[in-house]
Structure formats: C-alpha cells, structure tokens
C-alpha cells in the first residue's frame, strides 16, 4: 500500500497538498445498569483532522510533514439537516458530538457529508462522505448478565459483566465462519448511571486520533483487522464504577478528489456491553 501511495504522489506536482482524515463513530444505547427500565443513550462523535502535507519528496511522507489548518469552517449534512454550529476546533482537529449537537444522529445506511471550507473569497471546500454500516456482536457479552440492587429489589441488567479494578478484559468478535475480518476499534468509557446523558469519561481507545496514527492507518489498516482485543485493565478500568465497552466495526467512506490521495474517511458502528468494576 505504501508503494502504491508513493506512485500516486510521483504523478502529482510537488509541494503542499491538503490532508483530511475524518472519522464518525457511535456508541449504542444500552440499558442503565442500575435501572434497566431506562437506558444510557446513544452517543456519536464526528472528528476530522484537517491540514497540509508537504509532498516535495514523495518518498518521505510522514506525520512531521503535516501542518494543521485551524481556521476552516466545518459542517455536516444528512437527510434534510445542515449542522454547522457547535463544532470544536483544537490544533486542526474539528469535532462535533451528539452531546453538543443533539440533532447529530448515527443511522446505518444513511449518508453523511462533512465539509471543511477554508476562509476567504477564494477558499476551497474539502469533503468526506460516510455511510455507517452494520455492527458485530461481542462474544463475551452475548449472554452475560449481572445483578444490581435497585432499592429493595434485585434486578438483572442485560449485557453486563463483573470485573475488578485493573483487571484485563478480552473482547472476541462474533464472526461467522469465513467472514471477512473488517477493521475494528475498541473504546472504553466510564459512565454515570445517575447522570445517563453525561458524556462518558474515555479511559481507553484504539481509534487513531492524531496525524501520525491517522497516516499510519491510511497506509495500512492491517493492525486493526483482528478477531479479538485485549483491553489493559490498568488503564481502562482504573477505578470502581460502570464502564461502557464498545466494539466499532469500520466501514470505509470517501474523500473529495481535491484532497491528498492519502486522505481517508471512516465510519465505526458500535455494539457494546457494560463492565461493573468493584
């Protein structure tokens, strides 16, 4: 893949090009572990890293040659909505979450178009298009339950496992025999059942979220095409509480043709379970 990218770059004019790497991911709604009659809501995040990359020497492309573009305007359209407010920008990373913008949904089969517009009358627009795909189940949560106490009544919460502080957890993808092993990410976040709408406190993730890791992912997604993941408990489950463990299955999207050929767009559809850490 690296050789193919170099060949593409050799056919282009030398100089700087615009690099766009965008990801759209979702954690699904799950029953509230202390009140299964309610749920922890679905949470979605759209993130884009936007910058320029120096291709003067196309045989030496790395993250050190990427410079952030911090003054673009971000928006996303889907169905009949156009969301252009509530975006956060940090050193070239543009982020919109469903907590900041409740109208941001995540619906499999629905196309979402992200646009980043550079300023000025001659500003250029760069786009990414996502269409979320189906999810995969997690073997360790398929039939798991744990019992919680709600007032005087014991209630069984579905898809819940017990764990200890610092204990590792292995996640196994529920794949059919002979199925393609698509790229996948893992996200772990502590949730507060008493404040279910609060954003999870992310304690562990394998999602590439910086220029270096995104560029590595573009060059090869093979490290993410695995059938199981070992989650390090010392980092992921660092204190007692409830943790949402999400497996995100990646579907490749498209980036506009005016962007650097190594740009990428990905959508990650989630399935999840809860670990009660004691």
Broad structural category: mainly beta
**Low-confidence spans:** 1-13
User: Over all CA atoms, what is the radius of gyration?
Assistant: 20 Å
Compute the number of structural domains: 1
Say how many strands there are. 21
Please estimate the helix content: under 10%
N-end to C-end Cα span:
45 Å
Task: Describe, in plain words, how this protein is organized in 3D.
- This protein is globular.
- The strands form five sheets. Strands 1, 4, 5, 8, 9, 14, 16, 17, 19 and 21 form a ten-stranded mixed β-sheet that branches. Strands 7-6-10-11-20 form a five-stranded antiparallel β-sheet, with no helix packed on it. A two-stranded antiparallel sheet has the order 2-3.
- It is 8% helix and 47% strand.
- Mean pLDDT is 88; it is low at 1-13.
- The N and C termini lie far apart (45 Å).
- The chain has one domain (2-277).
- It has 278 residues and is mainly beta.
- The protein has helices at 2-10, 211-219, 233-236, and strands at 16-27, 30-32, 35-40, 43-54, 66-68, 73-78, 81-83, 88-90, 93-97, 112-117, 125-130, 145-150, 153-158, 160-163, 169-172, 184-191, 201-205, 228-231, 241-252, 254-255, 264-277.
- It has three helices and 21 strands.
Short key terms for the protein model shown above:
single chain, 8% helix, 278 residues, ten-stranded mixed sheet, mainly beta
């Amino acid at each position: 893949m690296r050789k193919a990218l170099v060949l593409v770059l050799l056919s282009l004019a030398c100089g700087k090009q615009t690099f766009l790497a965008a990801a759209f991911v979702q954690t699904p709604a799950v029953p509230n572990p202390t009140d299964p009659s309610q749920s922890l809501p679905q949470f979605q995040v759209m993130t884009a890293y936007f910058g320029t990359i120096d291709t003067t020497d196309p045989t030496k492309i790395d993250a050190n040659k990427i410079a952030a573009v911090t003054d673009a305007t971000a928006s996303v359209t889907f169905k009949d909505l156009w969301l252009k407010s509530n975006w956060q920008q940090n050193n070239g990373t543009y982020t919109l979450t469903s907590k900041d913008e409740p109208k941001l949904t995540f619906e499999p089969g629905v196309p979402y178009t992200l646009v980043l517009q550079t300023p000025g009358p001659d500003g250029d627009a760069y786009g990414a298009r996502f269409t979320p795909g189906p999810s995969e189940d997690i073997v360790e949560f398929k039939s798991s339950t744990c019992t919680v106490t709600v007032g005087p009544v014991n209630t069984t919460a579905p898809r819940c496992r017990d764990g200890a502080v610092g204990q590792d957890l292995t996640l196994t993808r529920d794949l059919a025999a002979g199925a393609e092993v698509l790229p996948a990410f893992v996200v772990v976040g502590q949730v507060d059942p008493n404040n279910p709408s609060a954003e999870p406190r992310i304690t562990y993730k394998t999602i590439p979220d910086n220029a270096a890791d995104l560029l590595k992912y573009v060059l090869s997604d093979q490290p993410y095409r695995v059938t199981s993941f070992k989650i390090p408990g010392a980092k992921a489950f660092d204190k007692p509480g409830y943790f949402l463990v999400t497996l995100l299955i990646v579907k490749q999207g498209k980036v506009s043709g005016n962007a650097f050929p190594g740009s990428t767009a990905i959508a990650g559809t989630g399935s999840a379970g809860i670990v009660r850490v004691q």
